[in-house]
């Protein structure tokens, strides 16, 4: 083995996160410790002159040599990201493993092993939502490029029943994630508030004839839009008030920008206790959330929403009286 080959092998071992000693290297490559120290010195000098994001370290107590990546994440950060990612159930197992391995590569091997063990149970029991049947990462990458290049698209879109498709043309303007799924905001030239689930696109092609442009005044504030969305974005935007007998923080956390409405103790007692909360969201999602809260909620206004809740509850009750 030549000097160059030996130095390259040592460098590869260091890149793998191994902590090396001069004695062990001398034995492995059948050279003197002086030769090994000279090799390590050459590596140190090369790293100092390069723009590689690694720090060369020598521990005098343990007599070990190691490399530390400057752009590594903290192990606890990777643990938090993986736990959140698993909780979303958005990706199929193959893509989940791919993302997990890429994140684990950003921390030291010993820490990566510990984080992997802390996630092994939840990963083994992982069950993705239906969107996980499709590869989402390539779609995310492709739509990101189309958004950046402002590319108008012709596409087919699968309805929720899985049997019907519609052909449309639109300009993708943003991506976001909410409640298990990735969504694409599209602009069709008239209504900029059209949202599609990423996994339901089929037969997507850049449109050669029609080029849509979004006027600045019609661009969406993505953050504000997401804050008004609960599972469904259909219907008109509505500001509604409701009396809530559950933990107030549960509702306030679930509904961005919601707030408690001041009320005297006398008034609260007279109305059965609880608190009054005001929120702003899209009507369909609002109705869905209200119905999910059972007996812990009573909508106070607007009257139109109160009526829709009554109708939905009556229809539900009728199904059990048949």
TrEMBL record:
Family matches, as PANTHER family: PROTEIN PAFC (PTHR34580:SF1), PTHR34580
Domain WYL: 140-205
Recorded superkingdom: Bacteria
Protein name: Helix-turn-helix transcriptional regulator
UniProt source species: Lactiplantibacillus dongliensis
Cross-referenced Pfam families: WYL
């Amino acid at each position: 083995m030549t000097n160059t080959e030996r130095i390259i092998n040592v460098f590869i071992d260091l890149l793998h996160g191994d902590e090396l000693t001069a004695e062990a290297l001398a034995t492995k490559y059948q050279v003197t410790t002086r030769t090994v120290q000279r090799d390590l010195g050459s590596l140190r000098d090369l790293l100092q002159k390069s723009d590689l994001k690694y720090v060369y370290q020598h521990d005098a107590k343990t007599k070990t040599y190691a490399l530390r990546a400057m752009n590594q994440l903290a192990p606890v950060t990777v643990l938090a990201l993986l736990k959140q990612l698993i909780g979303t159930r958005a990706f199929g197992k193959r893509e989940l493993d791919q993302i997990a391995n890429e994140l684990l590569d950003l921390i030291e091997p010993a820490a990566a092993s510990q984080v992997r063990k802390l996630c092994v149970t939840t990963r083994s029991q992982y069950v993705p939502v239906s969107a996980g049947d499709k590869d989402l990462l390539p779609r995310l990458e492709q739509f990101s490029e189309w958004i950046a290049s402002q590319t108008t698209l012709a596409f087919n879109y699968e309805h929720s029943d899985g049997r019907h498709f519609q052909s449309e043309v639109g300009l993708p303007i943003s991506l976001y994630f909410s409640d298990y799924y990735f969504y694409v905001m599209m602009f069709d030239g008239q209504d900029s508030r059209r949202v599609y689930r990423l996994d339901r696109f089929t037969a997507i092609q850049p449109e050669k004839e029609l080029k849509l442009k979004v006027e600045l005044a019609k661009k969406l504030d993505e953050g504000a839009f997401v804050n008004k969305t609960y599972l469904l974005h259909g219907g008109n935007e509505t500001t509604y008030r409701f009396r809530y007998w559950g933990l107030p923080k549960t509702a306030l956390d679930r509904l961005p920008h919601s707030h408690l409405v001041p009320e005297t103790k006398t008034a609260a007692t007279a109305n059965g206790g609880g608190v009054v909360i005001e929120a702003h969201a899209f009507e369909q999602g609002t109705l869905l959330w209200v119905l999910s809260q059972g007996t812990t909620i009573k909508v106070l206004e607007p009257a139109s929403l109160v009526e829709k809740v009554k109708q939905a509850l009556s229809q539900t009750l009728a199904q059990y009286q048949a």
